[in-house]
Amino acid sequence: MPDITHVLTTNRSQIRQQIRQRRQQLSTLQQQQAGHDLVRQFSQHIQVQAAQHIAIYLHNDGELDTQAVIDWCWQQGKQVYIPILHPFSHKQLLFTRLTATTPLVKNKYGISEPRLNVTNVIPYLELDLVCSPLVAFDLAGNRLGMGGGYYDRTFSQHQFVRNGQQPPYVLGLAHDCQQHANLPIAPWDMPIKEIITPSRTLQFS
Ligand SMILES: Nc1ncnc2c1ncn2[C@@H]1O[C@H](COP(=O)(O)OP(=O)(O)OP(=O)(O)O)[C@@H](O)[C@H]1O
Ligand SMILES: [Mg+2]
C-alpha cells in the first residue's frame, strides 16, 4: 500500500506545478490589470480600510502584482511591511517596514526583500492584517503555498495560543485562476480567513 504522506506530497507538488505554470502565463498587461483591480477590492474592504499596519509581499513567480496596492496603502497613510527570511528561526518570517526608499536585496530564493534593519521590524501582534501570497486556494479557506512552510510556521495557531495571544488576521491574495477544488491539506497548514482576488472577496468562517 502506498505511504499516505508520499501520496499527499506528490499530489500537492503536482497542483503547485500546474497552478504556478498557469499564473506565469499571464501577460504583463493582465498582471497590471489584476493589480489595479485588486486596489478596487482593497479600497472597498472594511477591515483593510481600518488597518494601519498591513503586511503584504513583493510579487514573484507570477503572483498577483501588489505594487499598486502598496502605493494605495501609502497614499492612505498606512504602513506597509514585507516578509523577510528570519535570520535565526528555522523557516520563519520577520516583517519589516517598506518605504519608497527602503533598500532591497534578493534572498536565497531570488525574491526581493528589504535589507534587514532591526529598527524596522514589527512585532507580529502589531500587524492589523497579513496578506499572504499563495499558490492555490479552495473555497473552504485552505491554502497551498510554495512549499517552504514559512507562513505555516510563522502564524501557527499553537505558537500564539500557547502564549494566550490571538494570531494576526491572515488572508490570501491570488489570481482567480489559482482556485482549485478541494486542496489536499496537511495538519500543519494554516487556514486562511479570506481570499481577495482581482474580481472578488471570499470570506470563510
Ligand atoms: N508549524 C510547523 N512546524 C513545523 N514544521 C512545519 C510547520 N508548518 C509546516 N511545516 C513543515 O514545512 C514543510 C512545508 O509545508 P507546506 O508544504 O505546507 O508549505 P506551504 O504552506 O506550501 O509553504 P508556505 O507556508 O511557505 O507558503 C512541511 O514539510 C511541514 O512539515
Ligand atoms: Mg502549508
UniProtKB/TrEMBL annotation:
InterPro entries the record matches: FTHF_cligase, FTHF_cligase-like_sf, NagB/RpiA_transferase-like
One Pfam family per UniProt: 5-FTHF_cyc-lig
EC category name: ligase
E.C. number(s) listed in UniProt: 6.3.3.2
SUPFAM superfamilies: NagB/RpiA/CoA transferase-like
Keyword Magnesium included in the entry's annotation: yes
GO molecular function, one term: ATP binding
Entry cofactors: Mg(2+)
Keywords, in A-Z order: ATP-binding, Ligase, Magnesium, Metal-binding, Nucleotide-binding
Amino acids binding substrate: L58, E63
Entry binding sites for ATP: R12, S13, Q14, I15, R16, R143, L144, G145, M146, G147, G148, G149, Y150, Y151
Family note: Belongs to the 5-formyltetrahydrofolate cyclo-ligase family.
NCBIfam families named in the record: MTHFS_bact (TIGR02727)
Record's protein name: 5-formyltetrahydrofolate cyclo-ligase
